[in-house]
Structures are given as C-alpha cells and as structure tokens.
Design goal:
Blueprint (H helix, E strand, L loop, with lengths): L73 E2 L14 E6 L4 E9 L3 E11 L14 H8 L5 E4 L5 H4 L4 E4 L6 E5 L2
Keywords: Collagen
Protein name: Collagen triple helix repeat (20 copies)
Pfam families: Collagen
C-alpha cells in the first residue's frame, strides 16, 4: 500500500519581484601587501665630457691704486692676474691698500689689459664713537665688595689703603688676613 502526502506538493515557481534598495556600503578592508620591487635596469653609457672652462680670474695681490671710471692700460702681469685675462670676464680686486673692493670687466687684452670698473666699494666703515671709559681697578674692587663683604688675602696691607673704603681686620685662625668692609 502506498501513502500519498498531499500537503507536501509544491506548486510552480512564481515571477521574481522587483529589486530592493541598495544597502549601506560596508567598511573598506585592509590594504594588501606591497609586491616585490623589480630589478634595476642597466645603466646607460656616459656621455662625452664637455670642455673645461678657464679658472676664475683672480688678482693675486692687493692693488695700491683706486679706479673710479674707465681705466688706463696695465700690463696684466703688473696687475698680478693668476692667468691671462679674456675680454668680457669680470673680476674682483682689493684696491686702496685693501680698504676697497673693486668689481670690474676686462674690455681689452694683449700685452696690456684694459678694464672697466662697475663698483669700487669701501670696506672700511666710519669710525665709531669713543666708548665710555671703564672703572678703575679701585672702583671695580669696591663695587665687587659692598659694605659687609669679607676679603681674604695673604697681604698685611689693609685693602682700604690700596682700593679705598673702610676695612677692619678680623681675628682668625686661618692662614692669611681677613678684612671686613665696614664703610
């Protein structure tokens, strides 16, 4: 005999309903590990080295003169340049016995060189005011030892004789002499 269960029979599947609203976005997950660094590529060929320029034009001694405008010709060795100058170069030079700094440009070369100064600035400022005269040794000693101060010395001379002020010698078992300023 066969049993038939009528309550377990499923009917045909129905249509899908409309899609619901999208939910709130969740938190971002942790970042993944960084991958390994790739190999470094081969180094390219070095290019050709360019030409070396002239060394800086330097006057190697202090000049005694003082130039204010276009200058006369001077033998470049007399000016003691470190090398033969080239037209268009600029240089600094100490002039007036080292009291001025001149900035100039070479305008002609050859056995003699001509240069045009652009500035000749004094490096010596005006003389300052004379400062106050300081205290004498006696004034400094008295200022450092106000009334009531103790002065310990190996000298038998009362400090009042040397520096001023009134001092009395104190009895002591210590070596030397101890004086106290009283006025």
């Amino acid at each position: 005999m066969t049993k038939i269960l009528l309550g377990n029979v499923k009917g045909p599947k129905g249509d899908t309903g409309p899609q619901g609203k999208q939910g709130v976005q969740g938190p971002q997950g942790p970042a993944g590990a960084t991958g390994a660094t790739g190999a470094t590529g081969a180094k390219g060929e070095a290019g050709q080295r360019g030409e070396t320029g002239l060394p800086a034009l330097i006057i190697t001694r202090t000049l005694a003169g003082y130039w204010t405008s276009a200058c006369s010709d001077f033998d470049w060795r007399t000016l003691s340049f470190n090398r033969a100058p080239v037209v268009g170069e600029y240089f600094f030079a100490m002039t007036n016995g080292g009291k001025n700094l001149m900035y100039a440009q070479i305008t002609a070369t050859g056995e003699n060189v001509t240069f045009k100064p652009f500035s000749n600035t004094s490096l010596v400022g005006p003389k300052g005011d004379k400062g106050e005269t300081g205290m004498s040794a006696s004034q400094a000693f008295i200022a450092a030892h106000p009334v009531g101060s103790i002065y310990w010395t190996t000298s038998t001379t009362n400090p009042g004789t040397t520096y001023g002020g009134t001092w009395k010698e104190c009895n002591t078992i210590l070596p030397g002499h101890i004086y106290q300023r009283t006025a």
